[in-house]
Every structure is written in structure tokens, then in C-alpha cells.
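Our consortium's second objective concerns turning raw sequence data into structural hypotheses that experimental partners can test. To show how far this objective has progressed, the report includes one record in full. It was chosen at random from the queue rather than selected for favorable results. The single chain below, 256 residues long, was entered without modification.
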Amino acid sequence: MGHPDTRPSPVRSDPGVWFRVHRRAQRPRLRLVCFPHAGGTTHLFHGWPALLPADVELLAVRYPGRQNRLLEPFAPDLPTLAEEIHTALEAYLDRPLALFGHSMGSAVAYEVARRLDDRGLTPTRLLVSGRVAPHRAAATELHTRDDEALIANVRRLGGPGTEAYDDPDLRELILPALRADYRLIETYRPRQPKPLRAPITAYAGESDPYCPPDGVRAWSELTGPGGFEHRWFPGGHFYLDPSEADLLADITARLA
């Protein structure tokens, strides 16, 4: 049972709708806001709190159109999605924020960081993963292809939970969100994205076909001199699972 993916999503400011707090700290030193990949959910980050310092509170973004937001319309475009998330973050601005995004989530996190930056609320760091810089992304149109082509691409990337597409009932529930997310990222093509005042750290898998080294290093053009660092991990697009402990150790060191 599908639902339309072209209606604009109204701006909502309820943080309980937008964020899952994986671990609530009584007096957090910092909040790490995490943005999933296309078709992804907050589950990607469920194991992270155990690997982060106790004074870092983790918020995982709930995109509309899936899980507990299944009946909500998808965002019409990526900047609108970022604006809605930025608005919902108002409740969490009493502590410093760092942003982490994987794949499509990197682009969403960048757009949220840009909005915070414009208000003088610059995040302590933008951490991007599995995605080249927005102005270096190659044009693709997978969201216009048939279901089999879209699913085949996800399987090729080795994403978590791909076995769900083998179940006709589950497939019918989750495929619309996947296609909507691909539409968001594939139609997001900023030619001259604005540099941030925040430092940027880029992560990628060494064998990720979507992350050529020059495209990953191009994130350096979106921060100030000396504000860019990058690190490669063994594996492909979803290197995060096998390298979770090492990745979180690196993130923790950069948030110190």
C-alpha cells in the first residue's frame, strides 16, 4: 500500500516526532545529531551510545514516511527536509551540537549545518560519511527506474536489512521511502554550496564505488583553511557496521 511522495511535508517543530534520543544524558556536554542514509532509519545508530562518552547525548533523525511516521508525506526536496529538521532542533540548542550523516544523510546534515551557521549557531563539527561533497556528486536518476533496478542498487551497496525486499508485504511498506529518498538526493545538485565555519571530517570505505578520493576530499572546499580531515576504513559503502568501534573511537576523539 503506497502513498504519494510528491506532496510537500508541512514544517513540524515537535522534537519528539523528528528525533529518537538513543541515550538521554542528564547534563550533556554535547549532542551528536545523526542522519541516516537513503531508505534508512534511526536503527543504524542503535549501538552507538555504548561506544560514546556518557556526556554525549545521541539524537537520531526520523525522516517522514517510515516506521512511526509511515503515514506522513515525504519531503518534496532535500532543502525542505533540512529546514524542517533545523526547525525541530530548536529544543536542543541549549548545548553544543555536532552533526553526523551517512550517504544521503551527509547532504542533509550539511544543509542543516548551513542553516545553523547562518544563525551564528555553528556546530562544533560536521562529520560526513559515504558521500562526496555536494558540488561533486555525479548526476544519477535511479529514482526514475523500476523497482528492481532500485533494489538491485541497494543490494550492490550492501546496505543493512536488504532481505526485507524479499518479503512482498515488507517491500510494499519500505520501497516508497527508498524511492522518495533517492529522489531527494538525486535532485539535490547545488552548484556552489556555501562553506561552513564548522570543521568537517569525512569518512569513507576504501572500496566504496560512490566515494572516489577526489570527491571525498572536495569537502575541504566547504570549510575554512585547516578545518578539514578525512579517514578511510576497510570496506564498501556500509563500512560502518564492521568498523563501528573504530569509527566511534575516531568520532569520540574529534568531539573531545
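The partners drew two points from this record. Strands lie at 19-23, 30-35, 56-61, 97-102, 125-129, 200-205, 228-233. The CA atoms of residues 80 and 118 lie 16 Å apart. Both points have been shared with the crystallography group to help prioritize constructs.
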